[in-house]
Specification:
about 250 residues; alpha/beta; Lambda Exonuclease, Chain A; six-stranded mixed sheet; 8 helices
């Protein structure tokens, strides 16, 4: 392992065993429908803003939805469905409704300056580089990270703060100005009335992020990997590595 991604820092802190299976051993697992939705919406927004940097105009909702649909059909071809998962076409309809709202109400107010900027930096005396991809920085130097969720959340978690702090840390490392940061949360349920878009400001702390990064690098170097069985995320629905985890560490993943 040569690089640690900003988005994986929280994975190690949540469950170092899962981090090991996913990022070091690179075990391939079936996808999840929530990840397929998020990845597909992300691809559609990326297409719009990547073109808007130069054109100064948004794509039409139909163009964005077409990009989303193609990605969603591809992403869901290899997902593992659970009993309480909604049918694939319901989730797709929710994504279409979300993107229609976004293109009509949110995108016209954003002029991007940086879109999908990949950054990697090295450190003295640390064997791993730090890498990440900035979703978007607008012309007012606001760092915007798009997140898709199946349920609304009103408070910004420490994990969200840490991740956006990491993106700001990377931006500062290559002399990109970030005046503020926020999450644009796109919430998608199966019914049209349950789709929602909210702007959630995030107070970043790059010093706290750097401490977390150093904690993770030390843990990896020492081979400290152990499952967090007390976490609600330690469940077969949320962790695709549950089978490998039971084999290696024993016990039962609920």
């Amino acid at each position: 392992m040569e690089a640690i991604r900003v988005s994986s820092i929280n994975s190690f802190l949540d469950c170092s065993a899962k981090f090991d299976f996913q990022y070091i051993q690179r075990i391939q697992t079936p996808g999840r429908i929530s990840l397929a939705l998020g990845t597909s919406i992300h691809a559609a927004l990326k297409k719009n803003y990547a073109e808007k940097i130069f054109s100064k105009k948004d794509l039409t909702p139909d163009e964005v939805i077409s990009e989303f649909s193609d990605n969603y059909d591809s992403e869901t071809s290899n997902v593992e469905l659970f009993e309480d998962d909604e049918p694939l076409h319901f989730v797709k309809d929710a994504g279409v409704e979300l993107l229609t709202k976004y293109q009509n109400n949110i995108a016209p107010r954003i002029q991007p300056k940086i879109v999908e900027q990949k950054i990697s930096i090295n450190f003295d005396n640390i064997p791993f580089s730090l890498s990440g991809t900035l979703d978007l920085i607008d012309e007012d130097d606001v760092l915007i990270d798009h997140k898709t969720s199946r349920k609304k959340f009103k408070m910004i978690s420490d994990s969200h703060k840490r991740q956006l702090s990491g993106y700001k840390f990377l931006a500062n490392a290559i002399q990109l100005t970030v005046n503020s940061a926020r999450i644009d949360l796109l919430t998608a349920k199966s019914a049209v009335s349950n789709t929602d878009i909210r702007h959630l400001p995030v107070e970043t702390n790059t010093d706290d992020f750097l401490r977390s990064f150093l904690t993770v690098t030390n843990g990896i170097k020492k081979g400290v990997f152990y499952p967090q069985r007390s976490s609600f995320l330690c469940a077969r629905k949320y962790c695709p590595f549950w089978n490998e985890c039971e084999k290696k560490y024993g016990g039962t993943v609920k």
